[in-house]
C-alpha cells in the first residue's frame, strides 16, 4: 500500500479570556478521504513580560461542527441537546512555549473543528493603554497519513486478504448504498501462516469526536465470525481496519464479506411532487385546479403500496433565507401522516458545509382529533447520516455509528421541540412512527397527523430580550453566538441565575443618566464667570452623556434618541473636549490664542477619536498638552509678577487643591476600579467627580468684567448693552 502524508496549517491566533463563545478562537480543517492517521500539533506560547503568569489553555475538538462548550457552567435552553465536548488542557507555567500532539487513528473524513480559550474572564474593565495585557498565542497544525490505493470491498463479493504483521494493519472500505437498513460483515477462512486459528481484531467505522461509535469485532480462536449493524450511514464510504493480535512474525490470511439489507421506500411519485412544487411556488393559475384533481384521486390507490414498504418518505424542500438561516417546507403540507406499520421519513439537508454554525430547531405538533386511540404515542427520532427504521422495537434512537435525539407526542402532550446546537454537516433524518401500548394490532388501521416545523437559525429565539446574536467568522466559515447582558447567561441567554431584576436595571439607568446633572453647577459657574464657550461645551457633554448611557443599557430600561454609534462618539468627544477647554481656561492665555487652541484642539480630538475611540491617549494626549500650556503660562505670569501664580492662598486651598483631588480620584476610579458588575455606580461616581472638579477648577472672571446684574441692565427697557467707554463727538 502507498501512504501519502499531508500537512495543513493555519495562522496563530491570540487567545482571550472566556465570557461568551466569541472569545473562543476557532480553527477549521478538512480531513481528506481514506485518512488512516490524523495528528494535531498544538503550539501554545505566551509573552515574556512580568505581567505574564502561568495559564491553562483549554482546547476542544469536534467533527462535523464547532464544539458546543460550557466553560462557565451555565444552563442551556430547554429542549436543547447537549453532549460534552472532547477537550484537553495545555498548561503554560515556567516554559514560554508548550507543544502538544493529539493522535486520532482512522478519523472520519470531512470538517474538523478546534476551539481554544483561556479561563473565565475576571470582568474588569481595562482602559486601553493603561496596562499591557500578556499575549497568549495558540496555533493548530494538522498532519494526515492517507492511503492512496485503499482496497474496495464490493457488497456480496468475498475478498481474500492477508495481514502481514501486527505493525501493518489492513485497511479496506465499502460503500453503503442509499436505503440500506442493515449491514452484515463476515470474516471467514481466517488462519495464520502457522496454520493456527486467527487472532485478529476488526474495527468498523471511523472515529468522531466528542463521541465515537466505532464498532469492534474480535476473532480469537474461531474460524468464522460476523457482526451485524443496523442503519449504517447512507451513501458514504465505511472504513474497515483489520489488525493482527498474534505474534510479530506470523501473517494472517482471511476472507471478508459485506452484505446489505436494502429497504424499499414508499412515497408519492416524483411527478406528483413536481406538480405540487410548481403549484406552491406559482400559486393558483388556470389549469392548476384540474391538475391537482388526479393527484387526490391517486392517493388512495397508493396507500396500500405505501403500507407494504419499510418506510414512507415525505418530500421536503430546503429554502435558504440568509446566512445560516434555512427553512424546510413539506410539499404535501405541514401535516404528515404517521402509522404503525412503517416509519415516516423526512430528509433535512444540512450538508452544504455552511449550516453547522447555527441551531437546528424541530417542532412537532400532534393533531389530537386525528388519533382514534386514546393512549397512542407518536415516537420520533432525529439522527444524522442514516435514519432510525426500527422505532417500534428498539426505541433507543440509535444508528450503527451515532446516537440520535428522541422526541414523542401523544394525546396528553401534543407538542414537542428539539434544538440541536451546531448540527454536524450531514444529511439529517426525522423518523416518526405510531406506537400503541397494547400491541401492534390496535394500531394497524390507525393513523395520526403530525405537523412538522423545521428550520435552521443562527441563534435560537434570537438570543432573547437579554442577548445579542453575533455572526462570527473564521476565514470563510461563518457561525453565530449569543452575547448576553444584564447578568443573563447561557448558550441562548436563558440562564437567569445572576440576572439583574428590572428594578436594578432601572436603578442603573437612573444613576448613569442623572449623575450627568452634576454638570449643572459647573455650567452655572461658567456662565456666572462669563465663560460662555466653556459652558456650551459642558452642556453638550451633559446632554450626550445622558442619552448615550440611556441607550447603552443592557436591560429593558433603554431609550435611544438617535443611532447608538453617534451617541457614543458625541459622548466621548464631549468628555475629552471638556477637559481640554477647562485646562486651557485655567492657563489664562490671551483670548484670541485661547479660542484658536479651542478650535484646533477640538478638530484634532475629533480626528483621533475617529481613529481609535477607546485609546487612552485620546484623553491623555490633550490633557498633557493642555497641562504643558497651563504650566508654561503660569510660570510666565509668576515671572512677570515676581511671585507665585495664582497668588492667592485661598485660591489654592478652597478651589485648586479640592478640584485637583477630585480629578485625581475620578481618574483612579475610571482606570482601576470599574468592572462589569459595579460599572453602573463606579461610572456614575466618575461623572459626579469630574463635574465637581470642573466647578472648582474654573478660574474667577476677569477683573474688568462686572457681575451679571439684570436689574441694572433692564431699567431702560430698550437698552440691554452698555458701552465700557464714552465717545465724544464734535458738532459743527
UniProtKB/TrEMBL annotation:
<keyword id="KW-0812">Transmembrane</keyword>
<feature type="domain" description="EGF-like">
    <location>
        <begin position="455"/>
        <end position="494"/>
    </location>
</feature>
<feature type="compositionally biased region" description="Polar residues">
    <location>
        <begin position="303"/>
        <end position="313"/>
    </location>
</feature>
<feature type="transmembrane region" description="Helical">
    <location>
        <begin position="679"/>
        <end position="698"/>
    </location>
</feature>
<feature type="disulfide bond">
    <location>
        <begin position="484"/>
        <end position="493"/>
    </location>
</feature>
<dbReference type="Pfam" id="PF12036">
    <property type="entry name" value="DUF3522"/>
</dbReference>
<feature type="compositionally biased region" description="Low complexity">
    <location>
        <begin position="285"/>
        <end position="301"/>
    </location>
</feature>
<keyword id="KW-0245">EGF-like domain</keyword>
<feature type="transmembrane region" description="Helical">
    <location>
        <begin position="592"/>
        <end position="611"/>
    </location>
</feature>
<dbReference type="GO" id="GO:0005886">
    <property type="term" value="C:plasma membrane"/>
</dbReference>
<feature type="transmembrane region" description="Helical">
    <location>
        <begin position="617"/>
        <end position="636"/>
    </location>
</feature>
<comment type="similarity">
    <text>Belongs to the TMEM8 family.</text>
</comment>
<dbReference type="InterPro" id="IPR021910">
    <property type="entry name" value="NGX6/PGAP6/MYMK"/>
</dbReference>
<protein>
    <submittedName>
        <fullName>TMM8A factor</fullName>
    </submittedName>
</protein>
<keyword id="KW-0472">Membrane</keyword>
<keyword id="KW-1003">Cell membrane</keyword>
<keyword id="KW-1015">Disulfide bond</keyword>
<keyword id="KW-1133">Transmembrane helix</keyword>
<feature type="disulfide bond">
    <location>
        <begin position="459"/>
        <end position="469"/>
    </location>
</feature>
<dbReference type="InterPro" id="IPR000742">
    <property type="entry name" value="EGF"/>
</dbReference>
<feature type="region of interest" description="Disordered">
    <location>
        <begin position="285"/>
        <end position="313"/>
    </location>
</feature>
<feature type="transmembrane region" description="Helical">
    <location>
        <begin position="652"/>
        <end position="673"/>
    </location>
</feature>
<feature type="transmembrane region" description="Helical">
    <location>
        <begin position="507"/>
        <end position="531"/>
    </location>
</feature>
